[in-house]
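Exam revision sheet. Question 4 asks you to relate a sequence to its structure. Input first:
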Amino acid sequence: MNFLPVIFWGLLLALLLAAVFHPQRGVLARWRMNSRSGQRELVEDALKYLLKQEQSGRHAAPEALAGAMHLSGSDVLRLITRMESQGLIISQDGGLHLTAEGERWAMHIVRAHRLWESYLATEARLPLNQVHREAERREHRLTAEQLNELEAALGYPRQDPHGDPIPGRDGQVAVAQGMPLTAWKGETPGRIIHLEDEPPLAYAQILAEGLRLGQVVRVLEASPQRIVLSDGENEFRLAPAVAANVFLEPIPDTQAAGNGSMPLSELPDDTVAEVVALDEACQGYTRRRLLDLGMTPGARLQPEMRNFFGDPRAYRVRGTLIALRKEQADQIWVRPLN
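Answer key, structure tokens:
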């Protein structure tokens, strides 16, 4: 009797069983892990939504949570039951309220999201219209200790690429200030401190116009049809519904035109200047690099060479010749000395 076929099929069956039931790498183990991971992400997305509602002074009803999460009524009830059993929320007066633990967990996710956005924008150089979606995919992965390491590697940024404040390690978050462009009065210049990234279509239009954090702009025209801005070189046209997603603040004293300071990018050739300050919007790796290059308050510098194409431009600072792109030089405020 030939036992080879029996041995072959026996080995094949053993391999199939191992592939399905292996405690770490089997199909069932991976299914359980992915299922747990999916449930965790669902809980964390719900916590983040509820936190946003509470920060706006509202408490979401179960129906609102179902709509935001794209869940059926039965699915959202199961989710709420799970979150209540974990001590993350309580149902009260028809609304869902975060507990102290639920708020702590939600703030961890917000912190992770905004730190990932900072990394993706400043380190990975991902286009700004892509960082939000990618950060949402990554925000569920890191522990508090890993977030602290990421924060340190980024130079302790205080805001994400949209201008939203990043929660600290203690869960505290600064209150974002600023006035929507649609409420900005007169032609007083203001500095862009926040660009709302929702809805995505409005954010895409803002980016397409070329507006960015830290930019100093002046309102030239405001009507029910359009708002026209200028940064001194270019004009930007936005519909009021889109302009409402751009927030300004008064220019800090170190950047006021009256004190004679200007962005380094506007410094004329052969002009000696001293550094006044780095723009508040300059954060993370870019800020660390500029400081390492000697761009500290009081440092003297001078443009020496201009690229045929205009960018980058060469400057001599502390005896060293360095090259900076315009977007970097825009974030360095200097005062001409001659």
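Marking note for examiners. The mean pLDDT is 85.
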